[in-house]
Amino acid sequence: MLIERPKYLKMLMDARGDGQVKVLTGIRRCGKSFLLKELFKSALIREGVDPSDIIYVPLDEIEYSNLRNPFALSNYLKDKTSDSAKRYYIFLDEVQFVTPTKNPADPQGEKITFIDVALSLRQKGNLDVYLTGSNSKMLSSDILTQFRDRDTQIRVRPLSFSEFLPASGLDGEAAFSEYMLHGGMPLAVLKKDDDAKEEYLKKLFETTYFKDIIEHNKVRLQKQMGELCDFLASNIGQKTDPTKLANTFKSVERIDIGKDAISTYIDYFADAFIVEKAKRTDIKGKKYIGASAKYYFADLGLRNARLNFAHEDYGQAMENILYNELRCRGYSVDVGVVPYYYDDENGVTQKTDLEVDFVATKGSKKYYIQSAYELDTQEKIGQEEKSLLRIEDSFKKIVVVKDSKKVRRNEYGIATMGVAYFLTNLDSLDE
Fold it and tell me: Which domains does the chain have, with CATH numbers?
């Protein structure tokens, strides 16, 4: 079965001929290579591009191992694109296999890399260059630094719920339950039964993601890194402070790992696109606060695989899904903090912080969003709305619940909608 990725395909089609190197980043096995060599290639051919003018180089395959030298790769591509009257599309897949090599003209200088090859190709007006690579070798921060604004980055993510639905063959509550359990990694979605999905996701984490991180970063404390990953998986959407976490590991788990190592390992997970960080921001003061942050997994199936599919906190899972959906729609997402003052039983004024799950921002748009798996009592409604009611600006305030409700608003202007409606309607935030 072919899983369509219309959003990313449009981004690739729109970026054609922009003079930049197109770089597809994202967690491994989320479909970057398939998007490029199957979906995008087919779209180009439908628009009249001659297949012979699309040059695909899978550098991870043994037949192309001789091109892992940057000079050999450059010469090969020059020979393949010798007709200056033609427009060529060059797809370099898994470019991390290109070995940095000394420049014979300057052996003491910096090594020549795939980036040098791509930028050299970019200078020719008839070549359109596209790259994919293993995220642990080709981190987005590295790319930004080395390409120096001469690239167009396309962040590819696991299947959104809207992409998952037609591929799953499910609908309604069954579809959401399956997505919440096994997530949206394309090959996992296409497997026929639960055992096959879960075996695939567990092996993917151990033999691909962890192996990449350990080898690339020469990690020594591998057991501790695994324990930290399990902690993040068990506590998605919870405040995480490296100092406090180090103390907890030492006193409760009897695991000796310092706060600096914890911060470093979390950075490794983020660089590999396994987790994303949501900073805490003072809504009134409009500034980031504290050392703690919240972390969300790129895919719930992978998160559940770390916990052997035994963790059943549906509220955490739904919150993670909402975070990923907002990021997929292009929003930057922070955790909002609202100060709340009250008088205690002695009449003394006290201060506490109320949280808004997500402050989603894109350009001039901003939304305050609460994730509430169950909202079945007036007390729970009050808890979810408490922080929203203390925000003084006029940006839209939304509560997302597990039910399949369409948008309803209360007398305070707070909108409530079901998670399925939110996930399948791209304009749901503006309704």
Answer: 6-155 (3.40.50.300), 159-431 (no CATH)
